[in-house]
DNA sequence: GTAGCAGATACGGTTTTCCGTAAAATTTAC
DNA sequence: GTAAATTTTACGGAAAACCGTATCTGCTAC
């Protein structure tokens, strides 16, 4: 359960809407800070007082307003707070939507969630909070991001072939047959399973249905018939 | 394997394109007829000569050009030829796209395939031929048909809820939890399974992935996030 | 009230998917 | 050529989906 939250965000308008979202979730104890240095200090103090935060919601980029800061962005803030309170949950809320950045945050830095600032980010925030409160993670699906034909996700034509077969009603175990028919390799069931696993992971999908949905919406899969 | 085909179709332009499609599939022996009565007679004669047709491709509606005919449409032709040659495969190729009609043809009359005349019906014809030659059936998916919000398929809000959960990555076995949370009934796993089974059947989908794809393309499922 | 009916749920067996690991094959480096 | 590394395939156990059937529940008719 998440009770105490710290929000590190330099734009006041954003702060207000985040506050409202948290209100809606019944989270009363919310602290705000406009600087990374200040955020770090707040985490530190709360911890020593035995009243640690449960979650840090932070932006990635903070504007430089002249005040000299040792920590200048969220990217540096995260490892700093981790050193003080390793179990602190971290949710990044940022306009940054580059898949490579998001993936790095997820895989290398190991944050708990990422929400891109966009049209209906409030709803996303809620979903992320829900996931994190259940010790799950939350990351955006590709569909929200407009990107070229699979480029950033290195979607191979082979991947597309598999997805198309699936979306055309071919059962997973029969996909090897169809791949062989078209002389595509790899074509073993094992390799198909691995591919799909990889794709689900990359797109943050938990099942094939969601994967298909995401790929259609993102335009990777063009359903003609 | 399909070698000998009879095409019952009163529009010459359609006849030509059907012919070309069959040519492309390597089917040499193709007879054409412009009237249902004539089609019936051809089937009869071929059978008595011990050289029966393997497949009848027929339209549903035939224009009345003054010549008095006993059989006026494909709907009546089908039972008539069935009486003569029950095992004859039947593929309906028609502009009729009413789901209720198609469903009746499939379930009550038990035809082997149905292709709607539309943009890329040639490709569909090929696929139907392929399926039928393998003793499978072929029926259109909803995506090709523009229709109101699930109306003709009596897609309930409950169905949509289930599909949405699936497309949002909820595993089938966890769907009951989410339904209960929203006080929706029925909410047992069993009922979810049954519902999905029904939907797959109605939409002629063999797996959930295809079902989701079809519903998205048809606009039943709006993927916002 | 009860008998009958329809919808919902529970259950069990089979198939399929999932996922980790090991073996085999192919490529790359040297 | 061999050795190492990478990719593909094979395999096996656990989980999930699939599907038929049986039970339960609530409703209608009488």
Most extensive interface, chain pair and sizes: A-B, 28 and 28 residues
Helix coverage percent of chain A:
40-55%
How do the strands line up in the largest sheet of chain A?
2-1-3-4-5
Oligomer: homodimer
Overall 3D form of chain A: elongated
Strand count, sense and barrel status of the largest sheet of chain A are: 5 strands, parallel
Q: Measure the end-to-end span of chain A.
A: 47 Å
CATH homologous superfamily classification of the largest domain in chain A: Response regulator
Please, could you describe this protein's structure?
Chain A is α/β, with parallel strands linked by helices. The first copy, chain A, folds into two domains: 4-140, Response regulator (Rossmann fold); 151-217, Arc Repressor Mutant, subunit A, CATH 1.10.10. In chain A, 46% of the residues lie in helices and 11% in strands. The first copy, chain A, has a five-stranded parallel sheet, with helices on both faces. In chain A, helix 1 packs across helix 5 (121-133) and helix 2 (36-48) runs parallel beside helix 3 (74-84). The longest helix of chain A has 14 residues, at 189-202. The first copy, chain A, is elongated and about 65 Å long. Mean pLDDT of chain A is 84; it is low at 143-152. Chain A binds a DNA duplex (30 and 30 nucleotides) through residues 171-173, 185-191, 193-194, 196-197, 208.
SSE layout and pairing:
Two copies of one chain form a homodimer.
Chain A: E1 4-8, H1 12-24, E2 29-33, H2 36-48, E3 55-58, H3 74-84, E4 89-94, H4 99-109, E5 113-116, H5 121-133, H6 157-167, H7 175-181, H8 189-202, H9 208-217
Helix pairs in contact in A: 1-5, 2-3
The first copy, chain A, binds a DNA duplex (30 and 30 nucleotides) through helix 8.
């Amino acid at each position: 359960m998440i009770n105490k939250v710290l929000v590190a965000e330099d734009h006041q308008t954003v702060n207000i809407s985040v506050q409202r979202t948290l209100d809606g979730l019944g989270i009363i104890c919310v602290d705000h800070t406009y600087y990374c240095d200040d955020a770090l200090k707040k985490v530190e103090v709360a911890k020593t007082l035995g009243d640690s935060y449960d979650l840090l919601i932070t932006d990635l980029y903070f504007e430089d307003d002249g005040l000299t800061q040792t920590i200048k962005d969220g990217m540096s803030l995260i490892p700093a707070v981790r050193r003080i309170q390793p179990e602190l949950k971290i949710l990044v809320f940022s306009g940054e939507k580059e898949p490579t950045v998001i993936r790095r945050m997820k895989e290398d830095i190991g944050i708990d969630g990422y929400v891109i600032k966009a049209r209906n980010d409030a709803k996303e925030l809620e979903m992320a909070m829900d996931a994190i409160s259940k010790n799950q993670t939350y990351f955006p699906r590709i569909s929200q991001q407009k990107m070229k034909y699979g480029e950033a996700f290195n979607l191979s034509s082979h991947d597309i072939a598999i997805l198309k077969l699936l979306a055309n009603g071919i059962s997973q175990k029969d996909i090897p047959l169809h791949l062989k028919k078209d002389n595509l390799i790899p074509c073993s069931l094992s390799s198909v399973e691995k591919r799909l696993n990889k794709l689900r992971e990359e797109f943050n999908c938990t099942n094939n249905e969601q994967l298909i949905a995401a790929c259609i919406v993102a335009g990777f899969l063009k359903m003609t018939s």
